[in-house]
Amino acid sequence: MKHVLVTGAGGRVGTVLRAHWRAQQRAVHLCDIRDLGEAAPNETIVNGDLLDAAFLDGVLDGVEVIVHFAGNPWNHDLDAIAGPNVIGVGDLYETARVRGVKRVIFASSNHVVGMYKSGERIDTLAPVNPDGYYGVSKVWGEAVARMYWEKHGVESLCLRIGSSVPKPVSERHLSTWLSPRDLCGFIDAGIDIETLGFDIAYGISGNTRAWWDNSTSRLGYRTVDNAEDYAREVLATASPPANPLDALLQGGDYASEGFTNGAAARAQG
Ligand SMILES: NC(=O)c1ccc[n+]([C@@H]2O[C@H](COP(=O)([O-])OP(=O)(O)OC[C@H]3O[C@@H](n4cnc5c(N)ncnc54)[C@H](O)[C@@H]3O)[C@@H](O)[C@H]2O)c1
Predict the structure, then answer these.
(1) 134 catalytic per annotation
(2) What is the dihedral of CA 94, 221, 40, 93, to 10 degrees?
(3) Does ligand 1 come within 6 angstroms of the Cβ of 51?
(4) Does the beta carbon of 10 sit less than 6 angstroms from any atom of ligand 1?
(5) Nearest protein Cα to ligand 1, atom 15
(6) CB of 224 within 8 A of CB of 179?
(7) Which 3 state secondary structure label does DSSP give 40?
(8) I want to staple 55 with a disulfide (CB 3.0 to 4.6 A). Which of 16, 48, 92, 161 is the partner?
(9) What's the whole-number mean pLDDT along residues 9-14?
(10) What pLDDT shows up at residue 239?
(11) CA 219 centroid distance within chain
(12) C-alpha separations of 196 from 130, 171, 190, 208 in Å
């Protein structure tokens, strides 16, 4: 069994994976700056700040695979993002290289392509088109991952997570949903695949209305869920977005935020 460390294990996504591996009794190390509660028999908990170099070095001792969820998914302010998502990712990869970590599953985001128009179908080779500083920080993370593969042989799966929620509740989710089952399936596949190299995959379920195409990913994970199963319920109850641009751009309300200089009109054209 590979020695796996999950960072950001106390967050929304980490909590889903934690429950999955608890049910399987898979041995795992969990790290977060926040309290992770009591460890189950399969868990080893390590509390601390990954931006602290000594802590980071210690926490990677003996680790073969890092599932890197720690980060700031919320704030569009560059100052708040730079630490966890830029410096933190660079430091994580460099320490991983020094410590001999073989593979990183990097939690990237759909916001690296958020400025594409909704309905436009793109694969993992499409040029990045981020919708804010958060998306830009994930482009940086993917670039760091690529560089550490090319120069140092550290393998990476950059999983561009769509909307990791229990079930779809908005029209956008019918395209972007990543079910809890498929989230865990993507991560397990990324850990178990024999040879990964550098790969990018969109973290979405097999949604009928998906905009993102994984045929150019080598991971080959076969999804089990489809947001379409909820379409009738969602379309009957979801209210239209407050800003019409939310529906026009793949990044939704992250993409519609902060337009200036008349660019919003161009985006709608
Ligand atoms: N939730 C989604 O739908 C979604 C979509 C796209 C991408 N992502 C990415 O997936 C990852 C997890 O997302 P989430 O929604 O669970 O976020 P979250 O904010 O709920 O969890 C992030 C966790 O990281 C921890 N953390 C942050 N900085 C840390 C540090 N310096 N040291 C140790 N721990 C630290 C936080 O305490 C938190 O528990 C993020 O990188 C996010 O950008 C999530």
Answers:
(1) yes
(2) 0
(3) yes
(4) yes
(5) 12
(6) yes
(7) coil
(8) 48
(9) 98
(10) 85
(11) 15
(12) 25, 34, 8, 27
> pLDDT tens digits, residue range 35-80?
999 999 999 999 999 999 999 999 999 999 999 999 999 867 999 9
Q: How far apart are CA 231 and CA 217, in angstroms?
A: 27
**Does 12 contact ligand 1 (Cβ within 6 A)?**
yes
Q: Which amino acid is at 73?
A: P
Of 101, 117, 132, residue with least CA distance to 172: 117
Residue 262 has a pLDDT of 79
Give the rounded percent of residues in the chain with a pLDDT score beyond 70. Answer: 100
CATH fold label, 4-268: Rossmann fold (3.40.50)
Q: What is the pTM of this model?
A: 0.98
Determine the atom of ligand 1 nearest the C-alpha atom of 10. Answer: 39
Query: At 55, phi and psi to the nearest 5?
Result: -65, -45
- Number of separate helices (H) and strands (E) present in the chain: 11, 11
CA quadruple 74, 79, 82, 88: dihedral positive or negative? negative
CB-count exposure of residue 82 (10 Å: 0-12, 13-18, 19+): middle
Distance 112 CA to ligand 1 centre (A): 16
Q: Is the pLDDT of residue 144 over 90?
A: yes
Burial annotation 192-207 (CB, 10 A radius, 16+ → b, else e): ebeebebbbbbbbbbb
The answer to whether the CB of 203 is under 6 A from ligand 1 is no
Domain residue spans of the chain: 4-268
| Per-residue pLDDT tens digits for 98-131 | 999 999 999 999 999 999 999 999 999 999 999 9
Rounded (5°) CA angle 249-251-253: 90
CB 14 within 8 A of CB 5: no
